[in-house]
């Protein structure tokens, strides 16, 4: 028994060393991006590299916000990401509640057809979608950027399982007390499924924040450019300032990192609860 415990202890030590090494390797690009953002342009490609920039070139961040449009890009990114996330939560919650709790003809068939669209890459239908937005005169507007993302089926797929695990007896009790279907949905179902809503909100915020293709084809005004488009624009300059580019990339990554760390507990519990079947 003692020999077995010693063997398990050595195995755990080796596993921890391997995991730690893998974590360091995965974090190295993030460290290099932050380190490079604090260097002048010529020092970024210097060999051998300066692993710790001294003195740090904080001027890159000052130039980014003073001479560039980083503040406008950031505000646009937050507006689009928050607006899209809120709309997806509202529509997905109502649709998934209908599929999980309401009884109507062809419910399972419609849900299956709806979920099958998950297998269609966005690049396939992006051209006809642009045509639709042009026909509705929504190209180059915030609504045109947000609205098509609201119909994505992933949110319905994720939340349906949460609503399905809620006992029907709760709905029946609310009906006996005179509650309407809307009251059951808003006052009983949504609070119970809060972990799933939190997980979906995190996933959709990060996805929208990182969305480049759809924003690129829909945004026609410089004043509407997002942080992702602004960073990409800086990458295409003929005389690049690598330190300034890295600073802009750091600014673009900060909101995603903060969202993950702040809401990590809700994200983990939401995904876990969604996997539990009644």
From TrEMBL:
Membrane protein topology class: Multi-pass membrane protein
Q: Record's family? A: Belongs to the binding-protein-dependent transport system permease family.
Occurrences of domain ABC transmembrane type-1 (ranges): 74-263
What's the name of the protein?
ABC transmembrane type-1 domain-containing protein
Enumerate the SUPFAM superfamilies for this protein. Answer: MetI-like (SSF161098)
Q: Which GO terms describe its cellular component?
A: plasma membrane
Give GO terms for biological process. Answer: transmembrane transport
| UniProt xrefs under InterPro entries | MetI-like, MetI-like_sf
Q: Which UniProt keywords apply?
A: Cell membrane, Membrane, Transmembrane, Transmembrane helix, Transport
Write one Pfam family the protein is assigned to.
Answer: BPD_transp_1
Q: Does the keyword Transmembrane helix apply?
A: yes
This protein's record includes keyword Ion transport: no
**Cellular localization per UniProt:** Cell membrane
